[in-house]
Amino acid sequence: MAPRPAWKGYLKLSLVSCAVELTSATDHSEKVSFRVINRKTGNTVRRQYIDSVSGKPVDPDDEVKGYEIGSDEYLLVEEDEIDAVQIESSHTLSIEQFVDRAAIPQIYFDQPYYLSPSDEVSEEAFAVIREAMAKQKKAGIARIVLYRRERPVMIEPFDKGLLLTTLRYDKTVRQPDEVFGGLRKGKLDPELVDLATHIIDKKQAKFDPSGFEDHYEEALLALIEAKRKGKKPPV
Predict the structure, then answer these.
(1) Residue 172 lies in a domain
(2) Are 23 and 3 in contact (CB under 8 A)?
(3) CA separation, residue 96 to residues 14, 93, 131, 176 (Å)
């Protein structure tokens, strides 16, 4: 089954535009997940909102978002009011500028998505934009409203389509000096540096993500299988 698009809209480069859809480039469906169980009954439990003053459960129909405007004072905002908030980037990925991909520090990269044409009519315009970007070896910078947040994004040619990577805002990224500022610049032992360099040379290899394995997940599955068979969990 094809993955469900996370967003649908238009990709725009000046006067050229086309209908596109965004699909997550990662999949977490195979991860081990647990349900919360009532130890006494063996039944699953569900979360329920409780009124902080009365202590009584709140009916789902009475749940509403609130924005704090004072001490214990909230402005109620309905879901349909939030859905009605629309700006250009809610539906259009308008490429504002082009940059060298290498000029964007790795720390600003967030989540990757595949960007592809959403219908046959849009395939040619999409291919034109992709080919022009590949020819110039540039990455486009745009904005998109995703999951009720506007996010800056980088768009670059990838395989037969485009790869869109959401970017972190500068104010959310800690500056290196906050963490590394206290490190001393002492004189290093040349022999130790040579030894470390030699080890790096010996361990050089081609990047191959197929070799990555989640050993913690394997250990969890081994634990689950042992308990299912009534055996002692493996160490």
Answers:
(1) yes
(2) yes
(3) 9, 9, 18, 28
Pairing mode, if any, of strands 139-146 and 97-99?
A: antiparallel
Which whole-number Å values give the CA distances from 70 to 51, 65, 75, 197, in the listed order? 19, 15, 9, 58
Q: Are 163 and 25 in contact (CB under 8 A)?
A: yes
Q: What is the CATH number of the domain that holds 20?
A: 2.40.290.10
Which residues constitute the domain of residue 113?
1-27+76-201
| Higher-pLDDT residue of 233, 65 | 65
- Chain centroid to CA 92: how far? 20
Other Cβ atoms less than 10 A from the Cβ of 220: the count is 14
Rounded to two decimals, what is the model's pTM? 0.82
Write the single-letter amino acid at 178: E
| pLDDT tens digits along 76-100 | 999 999 989 888 899 999 999 999 9
Query: For residue 67, what are the contacts with CB-CB under 8 A and spacing of at least 6?
Result: 74, 75, 77
Cite the beta strand spans of 32-189 per DSSP E. Answer: 65-70, 73-77, 92-94, 97-99, 109-117, 139-146, 149-158, 161-167
